[in-house]
């Protein structure tokens, strides 16, 4: 069976509201983020060369603008650099979005806490509500980070397994999305231990390569996770 490898890529930096969960913010990449996307191309090409991989013609991205823009820049540059006869095609999916905070999306943290305090049905929010993997905000449409990870992992698994029926050469498929959702997905895929999730992040535009083996086991084979420091602000 041909090798099946997924590259998971966190979007570039973007115009994020201050002290507001990144979640589903609709803002575009800033100039630094555009550079992050361009910088992703070289490590992808080098990895493909050393591993002797073909690239899958469809690149998957989150629907959120910052991820779509990152993927569009990567696809355009890769198509040119690899001299592909047909440019990589970009497909966007709700399933690759960051964790939803539901009906309080795009409000700042102080306002979210204030609103929760106005509703007698809701307990006081824990101090770590933004980074607690298992906590789900008590608002309609919200999900926990772990639930978001399940959603993303299912999409990657399904996409890679479908790919296996259509390829004859070792193949790489690109997924562009969000750091926290990808890390929690990696946990559900057996790549990260639970206690590693909070200790790690992802560099903007820096691919992490995961391979699905014939026995169904995923393995991290290349690319670097970003190690969090104690003072690192939780932004993804």
**Could you tell me how far the N terminus lies from the C terminus, measured between alpha carbons in angstroms?**
36 Å
CATH fold-level assignment: Rossmann fold
Q: Quickly name the level 1 CATH class.
A: Alpha Beta
Uncertain parts: none
Number of helices: 7
Largest sheet, described in full?
Answer: 7 strands, mixed
Radius of gyration: 18 Å
The gross shape turns out to be globular
Find the CATH superfamily: Phosphoglycerate mutase-like
Beta-strand share of residues: 15-25%
Number of domains: 1
In the CATH hierarchy, what is the architecture at level 2?
3-Layer(aba) Sandwich
Q: What is the succession of H and E elements? A: EHHEEHEHHEHHEEEE
Summarize model confidence as the mean pLDDT: 94
Helix content: 25-40%
Look at the helices and sheets and give the structural class: alpha/beta
Provide structural commentary:
With 236 residues, the chain is α/β, with parallel strands linked by helices. The protein has a single domain (4-227), classed as Rossmann fold, CATH 3.40.50. Helix content is 34%, strand content 17%. The protein has seven helices and nine strands; from the N terminus they run E-H-H-E-E-H-E-H-H-E-H-H-E-E-E-E. Strands 1, 2, 3, 4, 5, 7 and 8 form a seven-stranded mixed β-sheet that branches. Helix 3 (65-81) links the parallel strand 3 (58-62) and strand 4 (89-93). Helix 1 packs across helix 3 and helix 5 (145-164) packs across helix 6 (179-188). The chain is globular, with a radius of gyration of 18 Å.
